[in-house]
Design goal:
Blueprint lengths: L9 E2 L11 E6 L2 E6 L5 E5 L8 E6 L2 E6 L2 E5 L6 E6 L10 E3 L3 E3 L1 H18 L2
Antiparallel strand pairs: 1-4, 2-3, 3-4, 5-6, 6-7, 7-8, 9-10
């Protein structure tokens, strides 16, 4: 899919060459957002044309991979525009797991395990 087809990206802030380290990516209800990590200002939002509900995110270098309801999209992380898409027709649905050499891994189970580990360490240290 070309970036112009079905792209629902809206850039709310000027995109001066931001450092990706200054952005946090959030997804819910079939939408993906980039916010400034220091003040929470919304930078952009995108509603992929297909898929709804839980979306898994993976920042893979200079690409933001989004997997939602059997559809996978590659977004430009600075603007939220769709660079390409892939439908995994007939492969089923569920919580997607994403991994890459550049981006590590991203899935709900890994996030939950990390959160539990962080909480256990916090309690053990008395903070």
């Amino acid at each position: 899919m070309a970036a112009s087809e079905g792209d629902k990206s809206t850039v709310d802030q000027p995109v001066a060459m931001r450092n990706l380290d200054d952005l946090v990516f959030v997804a819910f209800n079939g939408r993906v957002f980039a916010v400034d990590r220091y003040d929470g200002t919304q930078i952009w939002r995108t509603k992929p044309p297909k898929g709804s509900g839980f979306a898994a995110l993976l920042l893979d270098g200079d690409r933001l991979i989004v997997s939602i309801s059997g559809y996978t999209y590659c977004l430009d992380p600075w603007r939220g525009t769709i660079l390409w898409s892939q439908e995994f027709s007939g492969e089923g649905m569920g919580v997607p797991a994403l991994a890459s050499v550049r981006g590590g891994q991203s899935n709900a189970a890994a996030a939950a395990a990390q959160a539990a580990s962080d909480e256990q360490q916090r309690r053990a240290s008395g903070h």
